[in-house]
Amino acid sequence: MTGEALIVIDLQNDFCPGGALAVSGGDEIVPLVNAMVHDFEHVVLTQDWHPAHHSSFASSHPGKAPFDTVEMPYGAQTLWPDHCIQGSGGAAFHPHFNRTKAELIIRKGFRPAIDSYSAFFENDHATPTGLAGYLRERRISRLTLVGLATDFCVAYSALDAVAQGFSTTVRLDACRGIDLGGSMETMLGKMKAAGVTLA
Ligand code: VGL
Ligand code: ZN
User: Could you give the residue numbers annotated as active site?
Assistant: First the structure.
């Protein structure tokens, strides 16, 4: 009744050293994630998957630079370097990440006008990806999250997961963060307060 899944967030080339939005040490987690994949019955992946000229790219906002913030209809949005463009090498999974066992790959961020950090909802916190329904229908109620980046896509996914009633653990040793303006401390605090188990 209480199945358990490993959710691997955005373990893609653009978030690893040499990538367009490199997370420091992002590639270091690959061996650990591979070992965890082996140990879990169910494995689900997310893949950041933007069209060219996506609204979350600084290049789409004249006069703005990466890591600036803009107001979108759905609230504040951090602007990023162009990254994870659909079909590009940067959007591909890290070549040493063993994703053979993955049962589902959730792609996110494909709507031009809205970014999507979370595996469950886009950044308007209203448009679902379908993952919650998928997991519930399969009677999977316990989730362990790993991947990139700790303080953005992993944290937003974990917060939505607990809000959706899933028992949620983030394995911090199998995550790496961006840490933009104290975002690491902020998001670790939010996850703790929301009842995410930080391991
Ligand atoms: C991510 C920024 C933009 C992430 C994705 O995977 O954490 N961060 N797109
Ligand atoms: Zn993105």
Answer: 10, 108, 153
User: If you compute the radius of gyration of the chain from its CA atoms, what whole number of angstroms results?
Assistant: 16
Nearest partner of 55 among 7, 103, 110, 5, judged by Cα? 110
The residue whose CB lies within 8 Å of the most ligand 1 atoms, and thus the one to mutate among 11, 13, 15, 88, is 15
Tokens of 29: 């987690």
Q: Is 173 exposed, middle or buried (0-12, 13-18, 19+ CB in 10 A)?
A: exposed
Q: Is 188 helix (H, G, I), strand (E, B) or coil?
A: helix
Angle between helices 155-163 and 183-194 in degrees, nearest 10? 20
Is any ligand 1 atom within 6 A of the Cβ of residue 80?
Answer: yes
Which residues on neighbouring strands pair with residue 144, listed in sequence order? 6, 169
pTM (two decimals)? 0.97
- Indicate the residue type of 5: A
Return the DSSP state at 152. Answer: I
At 140, the amino acid letter reads I
pLDDT in tens, 42-101: 999 999 999 999 999 999 999 999 999 999 999 999 999 999 999 999 999 999 999 999
